[in-house]
Specification:
Blueprint (H helix, E strand, L loop, with lengths): L2 H12 L5 H11 L3 E2 L16 H8 L2 E2 L4 H23 L3 E10 L5 E10 L8 E9 L1 H6 L6 H11 L1 H13 L5 E8 L5 E6 L3 H7 L1 H12 L12 H4 L4 H8 L3 H14 L2
Helix pairs in contact: 3-9, 6-7, 7-8
Bound molecules: iron/sulfur cluster.
């Protein structure tokens, strides 16, 4: 080891916070900005968004870098899925998990639903398609009281349109018709609430109206113009803002990448 490296190592071992520099380095490289294959197929998890251009960037394969803390939040969500899938399996209620579903009409969409379970108290042994969500304590407290499948649908569509749009897309794509459910677990306390969701075509179409426009633009090989100013709250919360701003700034490499991808996605 070079002298500088040894000195650096000794200094970091002597420092009180010996872990943060090492882990910061690890996390900073773990989930960089990436490009996946472009496709006109919507991903149900990214199909509900106030910005059509943002949905289109997802279709063109753009994956933003995930910063360290958010990466750990995502990892926590993944382990919550594994845990709850095991709970359902141990109860003998789990029928299927990680279910690949595809739809071609009226929209092209493909994704993976979390699970299908048998509803235990139901004499008909009814099946339910479920999605599992891990949320903050604040978000958990704001959840409405669970009601029937229709009231849950309307109440949660206001609060969590992405989750409802995602679940309705899975329900619509599933060849066996059934109701769905959302299970929310509080990240801090592990309390949970479940919501039966009844499929509703009008709600699905409303929630996916921006996705329909984004998909249409991909099919035509055209990039949607930015509909918001950069200071707009939607842009501040946008996953693709850095790419979007690079394009607006006239970044040639970004523009070439998008043109190439529009050509590949076009039908
Ligand atoms: S930065 Fe704003 S305009 Fe650009 S994709 Fe995101 S939300 Fe849309």
């Amino acid at each position: 080891m070079a002298e500088g490296g040894l000195l650096g190592l000794m200094r970091s071992l002597a420092a009180s916070d010996w872990l943060t520099p090492v882990m910061d380095e690890f996390f900073s490289k773990r989930q960089p900005e990436e490009w996946w294959s472009p496709s006109c197929h919507l991903h149900p998890s990214g199909a509900v968004d106030p910005c059509q251009r943002s949905i289109q960037f997802g279709l063109l394969g753009h994956k933003s870098a995930v910063e360290a803390r958010l990466g750990r939040i995502f990892d926590n969500g993944k382990s919550m899925h594994i845990r709850w899938t095991a709970y359902f399996a141990e109860q003998g209620m789990l029928l299927a998990w990680d279910i690949k579903l595809t739809m071609r009409d009226p929209l092209m969409a493909s994704g993976t639903a979390d699970l299908i379970v048998r509803r235990p108290t139901n004499l008909k042994n009814e099946l339910l398609l479920g999605d599992l969500k891990s949320i903050s304590s604040g978000g958990f407290k704001r959840l409405p009281p669970p009601g029937d499948g229709r009231s849950n649908l309307y109440n949660l569509a206001k609060l969590h349109p992405k989750y409802i749009g995602q679940l309705l897309t899975y329900l619509r794509a599933c060849p066996i018709k059934m109701d769905g459910f959302l299970l929310f677990e509080d990240k801090d306390t592990q309390e949970y609430k479940t919501y039966l969701i009844t499929y509703d075509e009008a709600m699905w179409r409303k929630l996916l109206s921006n996705a329909e426009v984004a998909q249409g633009a991909c099919v035509e090989g055209r990039l949607i113009e930015a509909p918001f100013l950069r200071s707009h709250p939607t842009c501040r919360a946008c996953w693709h803002r850095e790419l979007c701003f690079r394009l607006q700034n006239g970044d040639k490499a970004a523009a070439q990448e998008i043109t190439r991808r529009l050509g590949r996605a076009k039908r």
